[in-house]
Amino acid sequence: MSETQPFLFTQEGGLAIISINDAPWNKMTLKFMDELETLIAKLKTDSSVRAVLFTAEGEENFSAGMNLMELAPMLDKPSELEALFDQRLRVLSAIEMLGKPVIATLFGYCLGGGLELPLACHFRLAAKEGCQIGLPEMDLGSVPAWGGSARLTRVVGRMHSLDMILRAKKIDGPEAYRIGLVNEVVENNQLKNRAT
Amino acid sequence: MILRAKKIDGPEAYRIGLVNEVVENNQLKNRAIELGLQLATQPPIAMREILPVIIKGADLSQEESLRMERQAVLNTLGNVESQEGMMAFIEKRKPVFSDS
To answer: Which of A41, A32, A34 is nearest to A8 (CA)?
Structure first.
């Protein structure tokens, strides 16, 4: 596994597979977003790609969200932060409007950006065990920044969205299925196969 | 429920997504107080900013609600609450959000 690649990219037939490559936490770094933005633009025009899958390396977590340590030094530079958030909104919107179906696998921690990225996808599959899915930004004195509140509310409705966001509540796979956040719950060892 | 003037019980209300939780009768008030206290410790500025995004956002187009959310992010970015939240995260302690 390369240390320098923020994600691994493979293609199986018509399916492009993007795997976050920062196990076990699979945090999404600034570099991850920059390279993802370039890749998404390529996938849009590549006619050999008919569907896209987001997954992550390792068996522990899909993604614990953005790398907060990279964010901390930018806290007193509002214009840089604004540009950063806008880039992320742009990338997620490009995924949503790719014109090709996009699937996300949810396992382990799927927090903050680790849920907001799947929310911009068209299909979500969750592992049966060990999922902790949520938008914990309120616990950080902040609010979801990558379209999380806008998209979560549209997917699960006000009641569940309020419950998850205001309380920074984390839910497991079966609960995510119950409230309509994911399409299917899959046995952990079958999750990646099912998504492919 | 409306056309038939149908009355439902707690578990059915949970099943159809009308209530968040079903609680043992003798635990209901305690659970509600626990929930209220939890909500009362959350950061008040972030709370004030995000509530309308969720409530109004459900009725707006996705583009409009994303714009609202973006404004809420800018209004909370780098403020005292997010600094406390970030410090607490780095120091691995529970954040304390004071009244504002």
So the answer is: A32
pLDDT digits (tens, 9 = 90+) for A46-88: 999 999 999 999 999 999 998 888 887 887 788 888 898 899 9
Residue A56 pairs in a beta bridge with A20
The count of other CB atoms within 10 Å of the CB of residue A112 is 26
Q: Is A116 a catalytic residue?
A: yes
- B59 Cβ contact partners less than 8 Å away, ≥ 6 residues apart: none
Q: Which chain B residues are within 8 Å of A88, Cβ to Cβ?
A: none
CB-CB contact of A118 with A104 (8 Å): yes
pTM here is 0.93
Q: Which of A59, A96, A129, A137 is catalytic?
A: A137
Chain segment B25-71, per-residue pLDDT in tens: 999 999 999 999 999 999 999 999 999 999 998 899 999 999 999 99
Helix axes A78-96, B62-76, angle to 10 degrees: 160
